[in-house]
Amino acid sequence: MVRVVGDGIEQQVLSIKDALKMAEERELDLVEISPTADPPVCKITDYQKFLYHQKKKQKEIKAKTAKVVVKEIRFGPNTDDHDYNFKLKHAIKFLEDGSKVKAYVFFKGRSILFKEKGEVLLLRFANDLEEYGKVEQLPRLEGKRMILTLAPKKKI
C-alpha cells in the first residue's frame, strides 16, 4: 500500500498495482517521495521534471552556503614593529570582512633555531586580534612554518 499524491489528484491510499495503473492512465510516472513514511508516499509526475526540480533545489542550497575564504599573512622570525602593525591592520580588515586568517612565521635556513621568537610573535598577534577573531588553532610548527589560524567572531 502507498499514499498517492500529485497535481489534480485526490490524496489516497492505494495498492502499488493500482497506483502504477493510475500513473499510466495519465501517461506519467509514479515516483517514491518519502519511503520512510507509513504508508510510503508516491507522487504521480513526470520523472524528468522531478529530477530537474531536485537538481535546481540542490543548486539553490549550495549557493546559499557560506564560502570560507582563508587569507594568509606571512611573518619572518625577526619582523619589526612597523611591519607587524601593517600586517595587523590587514588581518583586522580580513576578519571584519568575515575571512579566516592564517598567520605563519616562515623560518629560513638557521633561523629555525629561534622557534620561540616565532611563537611569541604569533601569540602576540593572536592577543592583539582578540576582539576581532578567535583562535582556531594555536601556533604549531609544520616543517619550516609555525602556523596560527584565526576565525572571525560572529556579529551580534
- The proportion of residues forming helix, as a percent range, comes to 25-40%
Order of helices and strands: EEHEEHEHEHEE
Mean pLDDT across all amino acids: 85
Proper CATH architecture of the largest domain? 2-Layer Sandwich
- Structural domain count: 2
Largest sheet: 4 strands, mixed
CATH fold annotation of the largest domain:
Translation Initiation Factor IF3
Round the Cα radius of gyration to an integer and report it. 29 Å
Annotation field: number of helices: 4
The secondary structure category is alpha/beta
Beta-strand portion reads 25-35%
Residue windows where pLDDT falls under 50 for at least 5 positions: none
User: Got a strand count?
Assistant: 8
Give the C-level CATH assignment of the largest domain: Alpha Beta
Identify the overall geometry: rod-shaped
Side-by-side strand order of the widest sheet:
2-1-4-3
The span between the termini is: 51 Å
CATH superfamily of the largest domain: Translation initiation factor 3 (IF-3), C-terminal domain
Summarize the structure.
With 156 residues, the chain is of the alpha/beta class.
Structure description:
The protein has 156 residues and is of the alpha/beta class. Helices cover 37% and strands 32% of the residues. β3 and β4 form a beta hairpin. The longest helix has 18 residues.
Defining key terms:
single chain, 156 residues, alpha/beta, Ubiquitin-like (UB roll), Translation Initiation Factor IF3, 4-stranded mixed sheet, 4 helices, 37% helix
